[in-house]
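hey so i finally got around to running both of the ones u sent me last week. sorry it took forever, my laptop kept dying halfway thru and i had to restart like 3 times lol. anyway pasting them below in the order u listed, first the sequence line then the structure token line for each. didnt double check formatting much so if smth looks off just lmk and ill redo it

first one:
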Amino acid sequence: MDLSLVKTILQVLLAVTGLLLVLLVLLHRGRGGGLSDMFGGGISAGAGSSGVAERNLNRLTVGVAIIWALCAIGLGIIARIIAVTG
């Protein structure tokens, strides 16, 4: 497989997982005292997601974050390989 193709795939995956990560973080229930209260998050604190849904959202967020980090590391390694080989 060509190195530029792998680089392009990783760049697309990095962008998609980055956007997904932002959306997943915004879906989390506010803990209070932060920006979530400023925008009305404190009002609906009792109507938030259940414990199981919150745990599943946490797991999904961590999984997407790990994929995002691996893509970033992979792009760094590819950039180093391209710089060395010219």
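and the second one:
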Amino acid sequence: MVSTNSSKLNTPKSVYTKKRCPVIFLIDVSGSMLGNKNDSSPPIDRLNKALDTCIRKLRNDNETNDIAEVCIISFSQKISIVRDFTLCEDIETPILTASGTTPKFFEVIEEGINQLQSYLDRIEKEGSYKLCQPMIMFMTDGQPTLADGKNITDMEVLNNSCDEIRNKLQSVKTKNLSKLKPQLHAFSVGQASDNSNYILKRLAGEHNSYFLEGYNFDNLFDWISKSIEMASQGREVPNYN
């Protein structure tokens, strides 16, 4: 069951059209994010710090803080909606903790797409918002596992799961979205394996999948904050480099 810390969708203060830029963070908080016992700065701590910096930048940006709405979902052996969609000017950064394995690898992306569709449905009912590029930011230092923690190695199962995700993302609909399709950006951090690289490319495509050696979350979240700023301004989001 998905746990939730919900906040109500912000409603417009006037009848004038306002922009909205929905962004969903899907963050791996499995046990590997604790790093090594001798690590003075565990990956989960670095992630929390970088996420807080990202949120602060967006909150302090006058062009973004009342446009971008952020939803934060964590996953390991369960999926948790840590923050429901909230305007950046109102959001407080959560502190994430790490434990467990990643049997919810694919399920959390499905949950993110479901949350996005629900958000878009609510926006459409309001009828007074112009949508900017919706984005889903998926980040992990692992790969799909079974409930017992063993990696899924059956390529047919992996390929089918990836294809189902891609099809589900393409099926997201709303009149307000017009021809603008949601983008899935997938990040592999830590020590990426050939298998995880293949899975993320299959999920997000060649240009929206990124493989980062180590846990350099500062650069990653700096790019994310800039991308959200650009999307909020109706500009094209650049590839990560």
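quick thing i noticed on the 2nd:
Residues 11-16 have pLDDT under 50 and may be disordered.
anyway thats it, ttyl
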